[in-house]
Specification:
Number of domains of chain A: 2
Distance between the termini of chain A: 15 Å
CATH topology of chain B: fumarase
Oligomer: heterodimer
Distance between the termini of chain B: 24 Å
Number of domains of chain B: 1
Largest interface: A-B, 38 and 36 residues
CATH superfamily of chain B: Fe-S hydro-lyase, tartrate dehydratase beta-type, catalytic domain
CATH architecture of chain B: Alpha-Beta Barrel
Helix content of chain B: 10-25%
Strand order of the largest sheet of chain A: 4-2-5-10
Strand content of chain B: 25-35%
Mean pLDDT of chain A: 98
Strand content of chain A: 15-25%
Strand order of the largest sheet of chain B: 2-3-4-5-7
Helix content of chain A: 25-40%
Number of helices of chain B: 5
Number of strands of chain A: 10
Largest sheet of chain A: 4 strands, mixed
Order of helices and strands of chain B: EHEHEHEHEHEE
Low-confidence stretches of chain B: none
Radius of gyration of chain A: 19 Å
Chain lengths: ~280, ~170
Amino acid sequence: MRKIDVTKVSDAISRLCIKANLNLRSDIERALRRALKKEVKPLAKRILRVLLENAKIAERDRRPLCQDTGIVSVYLRVGQNIQFVGGELKKAVERGVRKGYEKGILRKSVVKSPLIRINTSTNTPPVIYTDIVRGDRLKITVVPKGFGSENKSAIKMFGPTATEKDIASFIVDVVKKAGPDACPPYILGIGIGGTFDKAASLAKKALLVPLDRHNIKKHLRNLEKIILKEANALGIGPLGLGGKTTCLGANILEYPTHIAGLPVAVNVGCHITRNASCIV
Amino acid sequence: MKKIVSPITKSGLSKLKCGEEVLFTGTVYTARDAAHKKLTELIAKGKKTPFDLKNTIIYYAGPTPQRPDGTFGSCGPTTASRMDKFTPPLLAKGLAAMIGKGKRSVEVAGYIKKYGAVYFLAAGGAGAYLAKKIVSATLLAFGELGPEAIYRLKVENFPLIVGIDSSGNDVYQ
């Protein structure tokens, strides 16, 4: 058994919260630069330049990319040969988020009850997912998610005979409904299959996949291409003011499902979709 | 690019056309969902609001906390449509302009026209870039709301695009 002190987990999460909020993902930066080359409309070009400038300022001046520093999802990929010592793992994860948001002067955006709505003032609790794998390593991924885009996400329980065209049309409709509201150009995380909840969690995980990585499954790669093409044909453009760039990328993750259904979830991500990982 | 400065007047705003880009220098007040709820409750009860709404600009924003030097690290616009249901009574009290991101309802566009107000767009997701245009920030009211409190901001050359002009023309229609 490899022993890991939970304080190490706290410290790592605190650092990752700050890193994710201050540094634009390099694959997104590359996608924005590619979009800038493709756009012809002067306003769309100017907006894309502002977004790239925003990333530069955030990194250089250590400012959060966006004031909505999100509610945090923490993914723990835990090797089964690890024994956590020095306290309760869940509390350590919470402590890490609290510390990161305090130290990074990040916005605390979590309310204790969705109905009573009193801010917890710590940006905790995070949403924690654990996955048990082989080995003795711990991979931590921190995903701060703003709600401008989260609010535009959707799930649909299709019947088993739904076609790829039906799925694409549902997803493109989600983009259309998001319109200019959720900070386009968007990144689409799509989860297909599993159960109601599995599809939604896959959709969020799909947002973490680098935009320039090709899906190894050909049928999904083709569907991603169709969705991207149709979404960009909407002409929503940067900030919704028109242009060729409505979506920077669409990634699909799938999971086996039941003979009677075909769940499809789409998690809308904004142009600064954030995450950061490390291995302990 | 056209520059506008505080104090703003509705006759000045009436010259702005939908889609026009402007740089604003002057005072704005931050307010988002929870502050709007409180403001409209005060108005409904006939009580005074923490600032006089006449000829003012509300910025739909919940900044990151003030840094040791009093400035914000990041302060961009939030989705404006969530404030739609609270907007008519504020316009009736003389609110001249709003800054946010995204679409407004047809109803709100109608009220904007009725009162000769303007809805401006700011670059969503560019909070670091926009925070650099804020010269000073003072907590004004509802401090208990944390990021949703009302701050009085002095901004300099704050970049805006006219989303809905005072004639009710909408850049997204």
